[in-house]
Fold this protein.
Amino acid sequence: MLKSMDNFSKRDVAQVLLTAQHKSEELKKTNGYECFKSIQVFRNSFFIYKHNYICWKKSLKNYYLDENNAITNSMKRHFRQRVLISKLHNVLSSSTTFNEMYNEKQLENSFHCFIKELRNFTIHNSYFPLSSHLVMTHCEDKKFESFSTGGFKVYLQKRIKEHPKWEGLKKAMEYLMSILDSINLYELLEKYDKEMNSFYNSYIINYLTQNKNGLLELIKETEDVHYSLLKIKKLPNYPLSSPELRYLKLIVNHTL
């Protein structure tokens, strides 16, 4: 029969805590624990990009709430464009950093070469030539943001001349030329976000599948430690916290 908290002596409580802590330290040395921590780092890195992308979309929405922003030349419009450029730079920077860490093969794709070099262009140039467009049709009035490609094209040409063996620069130029007359930044980043999401999901699924046994064992052993701590009314926060354990069980049960 299980003891109630009232039936545990101080010595019993101390022994349970000592056993739980020892077990936790052992679990932290396992492959399952290392895998889970790697998933957390990967997830946090991706969510930095995702947060920036959501902020970009919100800023764009707020920008278009004012009907005059797309057509006037006011100081207010220029200020809000600067906000958009800042959000755009954050998206490009965080996504490129994420891909450089986890998805180098994707960087060989001409689309991602274009995004990477566009990021570099925004870093090395204090001015980004953002331009607002309003296209009126019988069905709708379409607003979108684009940018003057002349400066970016010159930038790429200069970089290609300086580094003729860097294939990524040539691929970026090829992609730029293919969309030269139809650059819609919202649609461009929306396409990019879909590819980022696809990679994130496939990476998580593959990683969980490869490390299934270690993660399942971590779940079981952590639940045992938590159970022993709950019996003595102690917070079950190691080797994984309760929220971490719930998240791990969620992604494992959803994927495997």
Remarks:
- Strands lie at 130-136, 141-147.
- Residues 211-256 form one domain.
- Residues 185 and 191 are 10 Å apart (CA to CA).
- The two ends are 35 Å apart (CA to CA).
